[in-house]
Design goal:
alpha+beta, 8-stranded antiparallel β-sheet, two-stranded antiparallel sheet, 3 helices, 10 strands, globular
Length: 208
C-alpha cells in the first residue's frame, strides 16, 4: 500500500474508485462508536459497512434505508487516521494537498472533473467540494458523483489524536445526469453549507 507519512491512501481516494469495493463485504462493526443514525439535512443514514485495514486507520460508510449500496444515491463516509499530537496538525495539510494533487491529475484526462477548496485552518479544518465522472463502454457519461469532504483534527474521549474525514457523496446515473447538472447550478451551496455546519459527532476509537 502506498503511504504518505503513514496516512492510508484510501483517505485520499475519490468515491468512484472505492465505494463499490467497500460494499463487497457486509461488515457493520462500529469501530468509531458514533451514535446512529447520522442525520444530515433531515435525512437519516445508517451504518452499512466498516473496515479497519491498518492499525491507525478506520473507515465507515452510511446510506439511507432502502438505498442500494452497489448503486447508491447518497452515502456518508467517516474516515479516521490516528496520529501523534505532534504530527496530525501538519498531517491534515498534507492529506488535503495530496487530495488536490490527485484531482488535478485526474482532470488532465477528464475535463469534467472539477473541485473547489475551503480553508478554515484556524479551526483545524479544510473542505474540498469536487466532481467526478465515469463513462460507459460506449464513451457516454454513465455516472456523475459530487463529493463534499470536510477534514478536521480530533481528539477522542480516550485522548487519541488524529485526522477525521467527514464526507458525503451524491451520485446520479445515465439518463438522470442532465437533471443533476441542472440542479447543481441552482442548489450547489446547499449541500456545502450542510456539511460545513454539521456538528460532527465525537468518535471513540474502540480498543482492539
Amino acid at each position: 500500500m502506498k503511504v504518505f507519512r503513514m496516512l492510508p491512501v484510501l483517505l485520499l481516494s475519490g468515491m468512484l474508485s472505492i465505494a463499490a469495493q467497500g460494499q463487497t463485504n457486509n461488515v457493520m462493526h462500529d469501530y468509531l462508536n458514533i451514535p446512529g443514525p447520522i442525520v444530515l439535512d433531515k435525512k437519516s443514514y445508517n451504518l452499512s459497512w466498516s473496515s479497519h485495514p491498518a492499525a491507525n486507520f478506520y473507515k465507515q460508510e452510511y446510506i439511507q434505508k432502502g438505498d442500494n449500496p452497489e448503486k447508491f444515491k447518497e452515502m456518508i463516509l467517516v474516515d479516521v487516521i490516528i496520529s501523534s499530537p505532534d504530527s496530525h496538525r501538519d498531517g491534515i495539510k498534507e492529506v488535503v494537498a495530496a487530495k488536490i494533487a490527485e484531482l488535478k491529475k485526474i482532470k488532465e484526462s477528464n475535463p469534467a472533473v472539477n473541485y473547489e477548496t475551503f480553508d478554515n485552518s484556524k479551526a483545524g479544518e479544510y473542505m474540498i467540494d469536487f466532481l467526478l465522472t465515469a463513462n460507459a463502454a460506449d464513451g457516454k457519461m454513465s455516472i456523475v458523483e459530487r463529493n463534499v469532504y470536510r477534514y478536521k483534527t480530533f481528539t477522542d474521549q480516550s485522548g487519541k489524536t488524529g485526522i477525521l474525514l467527514f464526507g458525503i457523496s451524491t451520485r446520479n446515473y445515465g439518463e438522470n445526469i442532465p437533471a443533476f447538472f441542472s440542479s447543481l447550478k441552482t442548489n450547489k451551496s446547499n449541500l456545502l453549507n450542510q456539511v460545513a455546519q454539521y456538528k460532527i459527532p465525537s468518535v471513540k476509537i474502540q480498543a482492539n
